[in-house]
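Example record

One chain of 174 residues, shown exactly as stored in the release files.
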Amino acid sequence: MTRYFIVPGLGNSGPAHWQTYLEETVPDCVRIQQQEWDAPACEDWISNIDKALHGTDPASVVLIGHSLGCATIAHWYQHYKKPVKGALLVAPSDLEAPAYTFPATGFSPIPLQPFPFKTIVVASTNDEWVSFERATYFALCWNSELVNVGDAGHINAASGYGPWPQGAGLLKTF
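Predicted structure tokens for this chain:
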């Protein structure tokens, strides 16, 4: 049986966010909690992923990242080298862009090594936190399938992504 682990981005995902919708509707889906959502340290966030997965067969795990959660998954894999079943990486923020001035420590540079498991990068053509070109570059480096959702902003609640059937459908491909 597949187990789904949600890895939110900066500030967590609120009640109207598609990650919350998945958490509430997909069986065996849990959110990985962080102690510090607004000024995160990469080391803490990746450690919490590893703790959350402890005792779970990695071959049954699909990680679901959004925004900073995508970079967190890349750092987690680079550090722990634990292959999982797959990862859905939605709107991976470009932490190296000048516009990204949030107090996130240790997330840059973004790891660019290919994942040895199935990954899907979902990107928008008008995301304020990552250009489509940069999201495409991440997908190429990570050996990920790229899904272009068009003009969808940051693919979050503010962009109208609460219940997101396309995202739920992508989970079925794992």
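Notes: The domain at 3-171 is CATH 3.40.50.1820 (Rossmann fold).
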